[in-house]
Design goal:
The protein has five helices and six strands, in the order αβαββαβαβαβ. By secondary structure, the protein is an alpha/beta fold. It has a single domain, classed as Rossmann fold (3-Layer(aba) Sandwich). A six-stranded mixed sheet has the order 2-1-3-4-6-5, with helices on both faces. Helix 1 packs across helix 2. The longest helix has 11 residues. The chain starts with 14 loop residues before the first helix and ends with a strand.
């Protein structure tokens, strides 16, 4: 399944990670939107879930300050690894909430790691407790399902000599993403 527009590669998304996301998605209905540029990760998810219709990408705007709202309402919205790049994730979520059908579902993921390991291109990373209290509660949204997805370990076991591989394994244990299934209250 190919979408129109330029495909943005997501640094070779790991198929094991895609499989974990697909396993988490337990229901969806059309129309479906993805809050991002057209990308390989979403295409792989759509293919595995056998979407019968195209995913509509909501992109080309600054999610911090521009209204995303269109006259279209969606029953399923994906927002994977977006909020941590924003200065104002509450504003973005308010826009997503307006685009969500009354019985719709948002599948949202965010990285989870200690602040010491935040990359420079992440403005913030939000703990599940703060995400629910400061982002979802004011918008009358609630989490009905949540999981921690550990990033796949990419260590060649023949290289397990010295302290570096041990440090990598420890960092791996701290690194992953929270994924949420969110509905309106």
């Amino acid at each position: 399944m190919k979408s129109p527009g330029i495909m943005v590669p997501v640094t070779n998304p790991d198929k094991r990670l895609i499989n974990k996301i697909v396993k988490f998605v337990d229901e969806f209905s059309y129309p479906i939107a993805d809050i991002s540029e057209p990308n390989t990760k979403m295409e792989m998810i759509a293919e595995q879930l056998n979407f019968l219709k195209k995913v509509e990408y909501i992109h080309g705007v600054d999610y911090n300050f521009c209204y995303l709202c269109t006259s279209k309402v969606y029953r399923t919205i994906f927002c994977l690894e977006i909020l941590e790049h924003l200065q104002n994730p509450l504003f973005c979520m308010a826009n997503i909430e307006v685009m969500l059908n009354q019985n719709g579902i948002i599948y949202l993921s965010m990285p989870a790691r200690p602040k010491l390991f935040w990359p420079d291109f992440h403005y913030n990373e939000i703990s599940p407790k703060r995400f629910k209290k400061w982002i979802l509660e004011p918008l009358y949204l609630k989490v009905v399902k949540q999981a921690f997805i550990r990033n796949p370990l990419k260590i060649k076991f023949r290289n397990l000599i010295g302290i570096r591989p041990i440090i990598r394994i420890i960092l791996f244990m701290l690194n992953g993403s929270y994924i949420y299934k969110i509905v309106k209250k």
